[in-house]
Amino acid sequence: MPHSSGTVNTADADRQAIERFLAGDASAFEELYHRYQPYVYNVVNGIVQNAEDARDVTQDVFLHVYDSLSRFRGGSTFSTWLYRVAVNAAITYVRKERRHPQIPLDALREFRADIDAEPEQQATRAETQQAVQEMLAQLPDQQRAVLVLRYFQELSLEEIAEVMNCSVAAVKVRLHRARNSFRRLFEKRHPQEDGEI
């Protein structure tokens, strides 16, 4: 989740922006949008697995947030609430489409870009990222979502529990199952390779 480097932390900045927006300052919502759009897109793209569809779903998420911000009660941080909306929207989209997600060749590059890497390292990384993306696409949506939140967004178990509206124990179970499913896919793809996943 984003963190600001100033003296006002992100949660306070979010709260102030929400108050200003609800008081009629439209530019306050733009602040929230610019702060969170890349993070929401990464979460959605990790679940939807198609860059164009992810952009559409991300826009839908922010339209929903714009329309329902007055009902945000602050029981959790704004970022947690926003991630919950994003995860639910992405899962709903995938279920509605009832199709295997398309695999964009550059999908994971946005998650873990390393501009200082040598060309050979970049090529190897791109191949690995595509393989990971293909394996993620084969997982059930809830398993895909928990892996994206944990490993791409680097949320804590407690944060994932808030986003997915479940207990930390349930997150641990989902994460364990997701890792096992991913490991089985990895071993099927690379039967001769050993390694911890």
In short, what is this structure?
The chain has 197 residues and is mostly helical. The protein is built from eight helices and no strands.
Write structural notes for this entry:
The protein is mainly α. It has a single domain, classed as Orthogonal Bundle (Rna Polymerase Sigma Factor, Chain: A). Helix content is 69%, strand content 0%. It contains eight helices and no strands. The two termini are 24 Å apart. The N terminus is likely disordered.
Layout: helices, strands, pairs:
Layout (H helix, E strand, L loop, with lengths): L9 H13 L3 H23 L2 H18 L9 H20 L21 H19 L3 H12 L4 H8 L3 H22 L8
CATH superfamily label: RNA polymerase sigma factor, region 2, helix turn helix motif
Shape, principal axes of CA atoms: elongated
Stretches where pLDDT falls below 50 for ≥5 residues?
A: 3-8, 100-117
Structural class: mainly alpha
Radius of gyration, whole Å: 18 Å
CA(first)-CA(last) distance:
24 Å
Main sheet summary? none
Tally of alpha and pi helices: 8
The CATH architecture comes to Orthogonal Bundle
Strand content: under 5%
Question: Can you tell me the CATH class?
Answer: Mainly Alpha
The protein's oligomeric status is: single chain
The whole-number mean of residue pLDDT values reads 80
Counted up, domains total: 1
